[in-house]
């Protein structure tokens, strides 16, 4: 799952991920609310990794994480969250990594090194 308000970032990240692996299916959301609604209604969603932007209008990435933590365990099990943000602010990184379920923090644009990190952060 890819949650990012930037249509250009969604497209670019999706292309990079799909070119890197034919086994990847990217489920894009431009807003955090609909992404949460999808997770709520599909406990057996099969989503292993959520790439989440921080700075989004409406519900930002940290607000998403607060709401995500309130979901039933069945909606969160076997899913890791990686913040994928344009912010290289160390305070954002520290805050994100302190959130339950967040296993990584990457800065945009995603590159080959980031892809290698994602492979290590995705659940087996």
Which properties best describe this structure?
6 helices; alpha/beta; Response regulator; Rossmann fold; 124 residues
Q: Could you explain the architecture of this structure?
A:
The protein is α/β, with parallel strands linked by helices and 124 residues long. The chain has a single domain, classed as Response regulator (Rossmann fold). 44% of the residues lie in helices and 16% in strands. It contains 6 helices and 5 strands; from the N terminus they run E-H-E-H-E-H-H-E-H-E-H. The chain has helices spanning 7-20, 32-41, 61-69, 73-76, 90-97, 112-121, and strands at 2-3, 28-29, 49-52, 80-85, 102-107. Strands 2-1-3-4-5 form a 5-stranded parallel β-sheet, sandwiched between helices. It starts with a strand and ends with a helix.
Q: Give the end-to-end Cα distance, rounded to a whole number of Å.
A: 16 Å
Question: What is the top-level CATH class?
Answer: Alpha Beta
SSE ordering = EHEHEHHEHEH
| Name given to the CATH architecture | 3-Layer(aba) Sandwich
Strands across the major sheet, in which order? Answer: 2-1-3-4-5
Question: How large is the share of residues in beta strands?
Answer: 15-25%
Low-confidence blocks of residues: none
Outline: globular
| Main structural class | alpha/beta
InterPro entries: CheY-like_superfamily, Sig_transdc_resp-reg_receiver, TCS_response_regulator
Protein name: Response regulator
Domain Response regulatory: 1-123
Modified residues (4-aspartylphosphate): 53
């Amino acid at each position: 799952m890819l949650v990012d308000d930037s249509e250009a970032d969604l497209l670019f990240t999706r292309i990079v991920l799909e070119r890197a692996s034919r086994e990847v299916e990217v489920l894009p959301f431009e807003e955090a609310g609909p992404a949460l609604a999808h997770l709520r209604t599909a406990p057996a969603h099969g989503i292993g990794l959520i790439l989440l932007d921080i700075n989004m209008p409406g519900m930002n990435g940290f607000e998403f994480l607060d709401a995500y933590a309130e979901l039933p365990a069945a909606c969160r099990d076997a899913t890791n969250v990686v913040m994928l943000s344009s912010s290289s602010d160390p305070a954002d990184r520290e805050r994100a990594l302190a959130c339950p379920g967040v296993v990584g923090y990457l800065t945009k644009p995603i590159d080959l090194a980031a892809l290698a990190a994602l492979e290590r952060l995705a659940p087996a």
